[in-house]
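Before the break, one more example. Copy the sequence into your notebook; we will annotate it together after we see the structure.
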Amino acid sequence: MPRFSIIVPSHGVAGRLSLALDSVLAQSFGDFELIPVCDAPGTPAAAVAAGYAERDARVTPVHSPPSAGLAGARNTGMRAATGGYLLFLDGDDTLAPGALTALDARLTATGDVDVLYFEHERTPWWEGEPTNPAAPLLARAPKGACSPAEAPRVTGVQLPAWSAAYRRSFLGEHRLAFPEGHFTDVGFGGLVTLNAGRIAVLRHVVVRHLLRRQGSRLNLPGAHHTELLDRAELVLTRAAELGLPADRLGPLFEQLFTLVLKTAAHPARLPGRCRRAFFRRAGRLYRLHRPAGFRRPGGSLGVQHRLLAAGAYTAFRALRGANQKVSAAAQRVPRPRGLRTRLFYRRRLRRRIDPGLAVYCAYWGRGYACNPAAIHAKAAELAPHIRSVFLVEPDQAHAMPAGIDHAVIGSRRYWDVLARAKYLVNNANFAEGVVKREGSVHVQTQHGTPLKKMGVDQSTYPVTAAATGSFTKLLGRVDRWDYNLSSNTHSTQMWERAFPGRYEHLEYGYPRNDVFYTATARDVARVRRELGVPEGKTAVLYAPTHRDHLTGFETGLDLEAFCEAAGEDVVVLLRAHYFYDRGPSRGTGRIIDVTGHRSSEDVCLAADVLVTDYSSIMFDYANLDRPIVVYADDWDVYTETRGVYFDLMAAPPGPVARTPQELARVFRDGAYASAGSQALRAAFRARFCQFDDGRAAERVVRRVLLGEPPEAIPPVRPLAERVPAPAASPLVRS
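Here is what the structure looks like once it is written out:
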């Protein structure tokens, strides 16, 4: 029995069907059967499918007449399927690279769930950026497998059928099939969730759905929109028969009527003679099935709920007309976020630029950190005449160091300094509405050396592309940059690819890494005491990177077991990716959780050894010339889902371990600090530590804030002449 049966209806999409089939057959995971559903033998789509079947035994076409519609085609495919899980793919859509691998891994982790919901990408037919509409909904679901009661908002009615994998035996046991007619996904998705015992979610884009130029057939005007009420009635009636509790019925009811009201609020979708009848029938369904204690949503949608419950069609029609007029007026007047704030910012933009004001921000306002903080500190020393303001989120303002002037993001002062500052320094990007004024200077410092794909290079990797958002807007932000920092020529080349723009590269090194050459043994001892590293212990910093295809933070390694296997003198400093630095401490026993520590540089100074997977921290830590071990247990999955710029396995900074046992052995036999490890690290440092010599911040301040010419900037000291900060343990010194 194959792991997956992939059912592809092909009516009307013969010209693009080969793209869909190719995307399946190109998957690295090959345990599947591919079932194209064609109209009849001899049709164009059937000819395409037959050609694939001749070349690949996994392709088994079946036939369904056009009169049976999409529901009939899918049901025909389901009857022919033999796989453990069913996937549906429209004939002009594609599976994302690595999709089946990610699905198999997730199902293995969750066990045999009845339904696995996943993200999908909607791609415009010509121009525009992909969107991931399922991501916000699935983000709120539990981490592991659960009952539908634990994730009541994942009802299935908001997701298309091709945004989930269904256990075939579950569908057969409950005799679930697609309802005939239009809006079949709404009925099928609702019935599936009502009958499911265990569900799970995968935060990974599996399907790339092409938005057709002519739009969805369902949105065309016609009486077929009344069938939406048939699907809603089917699902709600079944929910009543099952005695669905109010806490589960509430989200399902709300989502169904959000769809109903969306249709009712668009008069062009329904013929004039159908509008009042549609509204009245919808009102009867609403009153009949409204859950006890149901709380209507707020705003205009809540008003529509009340009018529907009251059967007040005349008032609803008047509200619909008023909303259309307001919407049309709003489209004529650009209003980014908050009209009053925007007007305030525009007034400030009319003021003269303040040549003595610099604004800094790090990690979207997470606090005083990284390259902006290092430049800020050096500016206070070399350019004290320039006033500095650090931007910070409200919940991080309390953590700002004493004496650092700061503005809370979103406040009036925030917009005031952004409008008037001559110098703007950031390791990410300033807000979308920030204007690049003539005469202002924007410095992009970056916050790592790129191993994984960045910027526009992410466009072919759907998970990260969805998280990035509009690439057009991204390039608009890049156009604000005047300078971009780089710590090595590899970065310079990759930034040019990932962020094409007119800025000037400053190959000055990363200011945050200056401390790796200026810190003393006393500094190292102090940091270790602050972090709680026991005297005489070998501190192993474990710093895994973020996985775009996973939900939440997972260590990926049993750290307690690692400590036991590596030796009694080992303690682990756990530093999760900064996306996860606001959760509870994960430290126990010999595990010291340093995720929330403000300075990653301090954590590196305290560590005797670094263990990481694909995190850019390895490039920074290499400046210390201390042992680095790469734990690459999922390299193939990571490269396929995230994309990388070079093969780390071919040029690692130290030993590579792929299993916990291999990792423990590297420490037990001392391979992590061997001559071979040093040789790998030396080659890695020569390639990636080119410009980090302890004076990067000084170079930036002199060039940007003081305006010194390039020839006057202190040159980079050769690697052989640099002396890194000493390690605490002499056993790991090179």
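The CA atoms of residues 338 and 344 lie 10 Å apart. The chain is about 40% helix and 15% strand. Try to locate both features in your own notes.
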